[in-house]
Amino acid sequence: MSSVRILDIASEAGVSRSLVSKVLSGRMGTSTVRPELASRIRKIAQARGFVPNAAARSLHSGRQDCIAVFLSRHGTEGSALLERFLDGATRELARAGKRMGLQFFHDEAEFRRDCLAAASRARVDGVLFGGMPYFDLAPALAELAERGLPAATVFGDPAAEGVPNAGVSQEAVGEVAAKHLLSRGCRRPLALSSPGFSAKVGERRLAGFRAVFEKAGAPVADDRVVAISRTYVPNADALARIAAAAKRRAIDAVFCESDRGAALVLNALLEAGVRVPEQVKVLGVDDSPFCTLAAIPLSSVSTHETERAAAGVRLLDEAIAGGAPASILARPAVAARGTTR
Amino acid sequence: MSSVRILDIASEAGVSRSLVSKVLSGRMGTSTVRPELASRIRKIAQARGFVPNAAARSLHSGRQDCIAVFLSRHGTEGSALLERFLDGATRELARAGKRMGLQFFHDEAEFRRDCLAAASRARVDGVLFGGMPYFDLAPALAELAERGLPAATVFGDPAAEGVPNAGVSQEAVGEVAAKHLLSRGCRRPLALSSPGFSAKVGERRLAGFRAVFEKAGAPVADDRVVAISRTYVPNADALARIAAAAKRRAIDAVFCESDRGAALVLNALLEAGVRVPEQVKVLGVDDSPFCTLAAIPLSSVSTHETERAAAGVRLLDEAIAGGAPASILARPAVAARGTTR
DNA sequence: TTGTAGGCGTTATCAC
DNA sequence: GTGATAACGCCTACAA
């Protein structure tokens, strides 16, 4: 019932525990074994389904083989952002046989109370952050560093100096979006821009977007940039103005900073009798699962969340191993669907 | 840098390790301490930020304080099912200071290769299942039992005898849906029914649905039941037939077994010029986040995934502690929105 | 080529 | 009231 130990295998094989340990780990040190004895030991271990006790191994190694994973849920409902993050992260963790202490948080208070309290070297080897933070994590990251806990982030932009991040170029998000719309013949795009969080995500995406259109000889005038709130969703007022602009043919595309926003824009356009994509094309960001369920399947810029999460785990592992890994930057890509056909 | 140990506190307080351990754990056994000494010890521990070493504690207790969480992703993209599951499960795990080994799987092969291999008493104390399984898990559960690993499931229906489940009454899903539509004046509903998995989820939801309408004197004729595939999504053909039925006023409501399906039905109806909800009401199941993003906000039956996941963790904990917890059954509830206004 | 001894940090039993 | 000691299972330097 209880697990098989090295001692059990040693007894059955009539050898010492150390020999079994060495043979099974493959690290013989200064020792040697007769090949036949080694294979007999391995066979017994296999037959009895030996798996090393995680706690004992951790106690010896001084590692917990467990990382804390803190995910901000801010503005992520339905975007599958977290699900994709976890898909990538767990794949990488499972490969390494590591465990995790997963916690979600919605705001700073919750973060300090529930998450930070659980981050100790006596429980985890490091901390991985994901989701969409909307408060400054720098102080928390400094506190973790003080506790000797390595950290890594999977955010669009790095959260603090010295903390490796598996990010995505925000300028590139705007650039690939613009290039895609240009290739579809758009010349008068409207861009929804949110202030985002401290790193000015929105501004930089917008900058990339505008730069491409500018270079193509079709600069995006200020009256075709609509500021939206931090929730990345345009309000009724903004939607009405967008629909009106579309009706009078002042715009031929809408680039939204989120799929939620894009879905709402799409609905508003259709309701106003605007034909999508013939008259106006719509492009979102995140490549959310519900894109395929929209009245017209929604095109969207993917920021490769799954792959970045896996990369984040690897960055953290490097840091835990004592390295000083550099942040990485993923290239976004457009998933083209009905709204930009 | 490295964590503070009991030994460190004992040195500072000028007492033995055992005394510190007893005082901090509050389990004094046959011992006693002077209150002032106890509080001095506690103060030192607090000041130095003492957190017991998880590995050492596990080694002593024989527990890993870690559970395996295996989530089937089958048919869950965008439904937020997994996200909600994890929200509930992690909250409960964090409360108990437990870790988890999370793994996603898509099919049986992946499950056997990636998940089952990681389930050992030497690594985890038990196994929790969630998501939507679409193959028979009974053999796997039997194998876990053989390994002495307790298991619990968070499925609609129990997956195997003797494995506690935090479920939801499938009949009740149909019942609350029917009652809701009845209360909105519907008398000629159409029901989309999928074969679901082995436990005949679809049939039982349908049975509950029909029973309520039958009792209300408006039985659901067979020609108003449309069978759909296991993916819970109607194909183009089915959508066309539904729209046609709606146009000739043969139906006044559509009850879908999933929000994905409901979203597609809604789109098909609107495209065919059917007014929703005036002419036909639409009701889904799962209360997915994208419900609020549909052309008309989608009403949906919630099966309380978050709460059930938390309950699942508690069931598993009971089983790990040696108990034989009974399965529980949640009552679904309707989240009423635009499509059943 | 094989075995012994000791330590990782915590807890529980028992002796003082 | 307090402390010494052994045990959990694994790993490794060192002895034989």
The strand count of chain A comes to 12
The rounded distance between the terminal residues' Cα atoms of chain A is 60 Å
Q: Provide a count of the helices of chain A.
A: 12
CATH second-level architecture of the largest domain in chain A:
3-Layer(aba) Sandwich
Radius of gyration of chain A: 26 Å
Could you characterize the architecture of this molecule?
Two copies of one chain form a homodimer. Chain A has twelve helices and twelve strands. Chain A is an alpha/beta fold. Chain A has three domains: 6-52, Orthogonal Bundle (434 Repressor (Amino-terminal Domain)); 66-169 and 305-330, Rossmann fold (3-Layer(aba) Sandwich); 170-303, Rossmann fold (3-Layer(aba) Sandwich), CATH 3.40.50. In chain A, the strands form three sheets. The first copy, chain A, has a six-stranded mixed sheet, sandwiched between helices. In chain A, strands 2-1-3-4 form a four-stranded parallel sheet, with helices on both faces. Chain A has a two-stranded parallel ribbon with strand order 5-11. The longest helix of chain A has 16 residues, at 305-320. The mean pLDDT of chain A is 91. The interface between A and B is large, with 55 and 55 residues. Chain A binds a DNA duplex (16 and 16 nucleotides) through residues 5-7, 15-19, 21-22, 25, 27, 29-34, 37, 52-53, 55-62, 122.
